[in-house]
Amino acid sequence: MVVPCSWFFPRPDEYRRHLEAGGFAVKTIDLFPHPNPLPGDINDWLEIFAQPYTAALPPAEQGAFISDVVEMLRPALCDASGRWTADHVRLRFSAVKKSLRSNNRRKS
Description:
Elements: H1 12-21, E1 24-37, H2 42-49, H3 51-54, H4 59-77, E2 85-97, H5 98-107
Antiparallel strand pairs: 1-2
């Protein structure tokens, strides 16, 4: 079974192209790690964010799927004390719409 991924995780150069194609002048763009400690077990996080994938499974198989994913993630995302961290990254940018920037210059 193939479930299409609706998430979009662009690299900075790829997102820059999208912004520029939309008429923006990119001032800065950066991708950086942003680890997010989870308040509980990663099961809760997966039940929310993995819904596009779990919904494609029969209800009787969803729990086993989540359990398998948890065990695959445990070595990388769970510390020795049992605390889970989501390994998020952030794409931060500053961009100005070109037409607005040129209009503001004319008003000054």
